[in-house]
Amino acid sequence: MEKKYKIPIGPVHVGLKEPITAWLDLEGEKIVGATVRPGAIHRGIEYMARDRNPIQVIYLSERICGICSFSHIMAFVRAVEDAATIPVPPRAQYIRTLVLELERLHSHMLWAGVACYTIGFDSAFHLGMVLREKVMDVLEALSGNRVNYGVGTVGGVRWDITPAVAKSVKDMLRYYRREFSPFYDVVTGDPIALARMRNVGVLTYEEAVRHTAVGPTARASGVRCDLRKTSPYEAYGDFSVEAIVPQDFYGKAYGDVFDRFLVRVHEVYQSLEIIDHVMEGLPEGEILWEKNLNKVLAYTKKAEGTGIASIEAPRGDDTHVVHLAAGDENVTWWKVRAPTYANAVSWPLMFRNNELADAPLIINSIDPCISCMERMLITDASGEKSVVTRTELLDKCREKTRRLMGK
């Protein structure tokens, strides 16, 4: 009989790119149960928003996550635009779509490189990082920054596509169409990489649906879900964006780590096509609904209502909800549901019957962002410790939402 014992992985571990703790129940080297415990990097970012106006909150939303910062900006400003009924010029919609897809490129390439590093394929990891530099250079040419670009704002975008930027984008497209396929071939054609990722961390179609997986994690299990297709926003309605699922390419979806790799690398090719369409169809016109920020703030101050926006971030559905009260310049409340909220629920299912050595790879396979997931921490000023049950916590959350909404 194998000896049973429990060991922790994380929150600091050489194989993890995010601070997460997983307590694994083992029989020998096989994982038979798991308990995931987040809570290492709570921040009060939603609470801080209540003392800031919508323009100021943009800078908070951009700093929820460094990898998908523009996705959070777009979800937030679209929620504000929904609450205040603010239109966005067509050219701004196209530029937003361009930056969203550029961000998807660098996010997926980073993840693919980290996946290779996790299985010890260091040469492929370095190749992935070299490839990612090109899209980072384009983002820097557009905004001046490689991270936190400061492009999005309420009613449009802050930076236009200049001839120099357009040339950088076209050069990038040629570069990736020439250089990305060798990276894909090296990884998918390596028998050791295939052995390390195939049939590891399996999440079936039924489990993905039942546990509300989103983004590449759900699509790797064969679920056809992509907000760019089902609920088009910005310029996506002008293009044909299909959900990338493994069965369309290989006849079957295993729902394992290898399929999560395949979905993301095929989405790189898809993003290149979308960017090409954006540059070809970029309309002329203004990039802002209103250039004077004081007028924008005066308009949002008069607005009354709740706005919601969901976009297909690199990791999956990113939803922001904002409430504006007439006469109040600041945001009344703001809620964020990042994709890691949904995907982390499936970790215990992915762990079962896998080897201990595969645990870091399984954790990383959903491309977790704990910064996205943990934004609020409330402490008792008295310093007294207490334990709150799940039911009590839900009741407190519902009571707070009703109170903030004035019900």
Topology of helices and strands:
Layout: E1 4-9, E2 21-27, E3 30-37, H1 45-49, H2 54-62, H3 69-84, H4 90-118, H5 122-143, E4 152-153, E5 156-157, H6 163-188, H7 191-197, H8 205-210, H9 215-220, H10 227-230, H11 247-250, H12 257-281, H13 293-302, E6 305-313, E7 316-324, E8 333-337, H14 339-343, H15 347-351, H16 359-365, H17 370-373, H18 390-404
Antiparallel strand pairs: 1-2, 2-3, 4-5, 6-7, 7-8
Helix pairs in contact: 2-3, 3-4, 4-5, 4-12, 4-16, 5-6, 6-12
Characterization of this structure:
This protein is mainly alpha-helical. It has one domain: Cytochrome-c3 Hydrogenase, chain B, CATH 1.10.645.10. Helices cover 50% and strands 12% of the residues. The protein has a 3-stranded antiparallel β-sheet. Helix 4 runs antiparallel to helix 12 and helix 4 runs antiparallel to helix 16. The longest helix is centred in the N-terminal third of the chain and has 29 residues.
Labels describing this entry:
single chain, 407 residues, mainly alpha, Cytochrome-c3 Hydrogenase, chain B, three-stranded antiparallel β-sheet, 50% helix, 12% strand
